[in-house]
Design a protein that fits this description.
- This protein is α/β, with parallel strands linked by helices and about 110 residues long.
- It has 5 helices and 5 strands, in the order E-H-E-H-E-H-E-H-H-E.
- It has one domain.
- The chain has a 5-stranded parallel β-sheet, with helices on both faces.
- Helix 3 links the parallel strand 3 and strand 4.
- The radius of gyration is 13 Å and the shape is globular.
């Protein structure tokens, strides 16, 4: 699955997803770290990427029915990189399965 990891999450998360076989890129890799949400939304839609984010704004767009990409919304508190990767690891299979079933918003909490 193609994944775009948002700026509030560490680049290591994109690397971890890539190691699992996903085409994962971090916004830093694409020189989009300071891009607006609109730019990221369009980029993800144009590249058929799922946005992985801690930003509630993307989840609101999905909930309001705005056409665009699916979103995986990470709702974990502030964690170090290793703790974040460890906490998310067990959630990825179900999250990606939900996206493949057509769900547009998946929360990891």
């Amino acid at each position: 699955m193609r994944v775009l990891v948002d700026a509030q999450l560490p680049p290591a998360l994109a690397r971890s997803l890539a190691a699992m076989g996903h085409a994962a890129e971090h916004v830093f890799d694409l020189d989009l770290a300071s891009a607006t949400d609109d730019v990221l939304w369009r980029h993800a839609a144009e590249t058929s990427a799922v946005i992985v984010t801690k930003d509630e704004d993307f989840s609101v767009r999905v909930q309001l029915g705005e056409a665009g990409p699916a979103v995986i919304w990470i709702r974990l508190g502030n964690l170090g990189t290793r703790a974040l990767l460890d906490r998310c690891a067990g959630h990825w299979p179900a999250a990606f399965a939900a996206i493949e079933r057509g769900e547009r918003l998946v929360e990891i909490a």
